[in-house]
């Protein structure tokens, strides 16, 4: 039934997939270890003596360090808020029937689909009037528009899978709903909560448009600063690629941890 | 949504207090209202005003539908929408076909280690910060030392001024998008393929030796929901697409890569014409809401 070339073709195909997905990433990381001369070489240099100069340079650059710090503060704070607000909401959506529930779902899903530019314009004006431009808070809050729906979605799914018998038993013991949420749903739903938190962190960490528009100098996030190096005559390619690597590395590790849930996080559960 | 927050509509269920879900939902709904709905209403109001912050002396008078008529009669806005559609029609077939091929390779038995490795590496493009994808694109497609031209040379085709020419810049953002989102299609199709019951697939394999008819008659029905989700989600993603294109081309050269979100951002934050930009954003929002409706109607039947 199968020709003998099958396994070879299969292996070649899979190797091609791996090369395809890793090449641009590899090219960035390798450029971050090349000297400027090696980067600018044409034809491109495949074998080179690695240098750590660009990493030394960015770790001594207060702008890069500050930006990574800002990204860390903002992504962590917005994720914590999203979980604190989203997990109880998910509990209600998983366990109660009420009128308007489908409208609520619709609202959460349209948030996933709306372009950030729609909110960036009014939020810019509002932040300008409230003197909130270039603060951590404005980004922490605006990132909730996409984090909260993600957390609600994934946690609702997770809470629905917790057997209702547990809850019945607790209710017979006289536990109220808040106790049931705290003592049963939070601990048993922890894996789903963790996954949703990781997604929330990744999306906040990766965001550029809001950060570009709503920050000036003090609160620039890592993607904004990396992008800002892209101007002028002689581009510091090694520095840019080293910064890019530093930005991408932590989220890649996080993404590998939740790789089994990747589809769920990106589609908000549309495909099971 | 406001109906959910009004308690009396909540039906007491299984002995729960009728206000209980309200207390669990209120903080999230309230927060999303403040940060999501209120600014949207503000944008709607702004879209009826002349609002150029580069010229504050003019004030911000209400001008009725002036912004909308000027946007709808403005060729560049339509051009950016058409370009977005063209981008979608260009990237999606490639991503679907490549994604399906990858999913089939990963679904096939054997090659355990290589297969798990490939499965894991698929996550890398998806997690890469979109802005950094743009930075990588600037490096790869550089006219003088980019590795893309080296590939073309190796194939015997002359080098290209990728980011400096209209067709080249469009091709470059297409390629980077295909790189980033093909894994997404592959993972969705792989999930579909793994839903095919093992017995049925085995029986079909005994019946026919043609992989094509296996795909068409047995596997395709399981791939359809994922495909529908892809068509709608990717259309929303393309309407949202900003970071990668902004970093790579800023919409240029000329307007060769001026996708709708990039274009609106420029009108708002380079020209500072926030009234016009708000009108454009509201129109974009209307398109998105129609898409979301479609999405829900097709894919979330069980919720309603």
UniProtKB/TrEMBL annotation, chain A:
This is Carbohydrate ABC transporter permease. It is a multi-pass membrane protein. Keywords: Cell membrane, Membrane, Transmembrane, Transmembrane helix, Transport. InterPro entries: BP-dep_ABC_trans_perm (IPR050901), MetI-like (IPR000515), MetI-like_sf (IPR035906). It comes from the Bacteria. CDD domains: TM_PBP2 (cd06261). The keyword Transport applies. SUPFAM superfamilies: MetI-like. It holds the Pfam family BPD_transp_1. Residues 68-258 form the ABC transmembrane type-1 domain. The chain crosses the membrane at residues 7-27, 72-93, 105-125, 137-156, 184-205, 240-258. Belongs to the binding-protein-dependent transport system permease family. It is found in: Cell membrane.
From TrEMBL, chain B:
This is Sugar ABC transporter permease. PROSITE patterns: ABC_TM1 (PS50928). Keywords: Cell membrane, Membrane, Transmembrane, Transmembrane helix, Transport. InterPro entries: MetI-like, MetI-like_sf. It comes from Rhizobium oryzicola. The chain crosses the membrane at residues 22-48, 87-106, 118-141, 169-193, 214-233, 277-296. Residues 81-295 form the ABC transmembrane type-1 domain. Its main location: membrane. It is a multi-pass membrane protein. Pfam families: BPD_transp_1. Belongs to the binding-protein-dependent transport system permease family. Gene3D superfamilies: MetI-like.
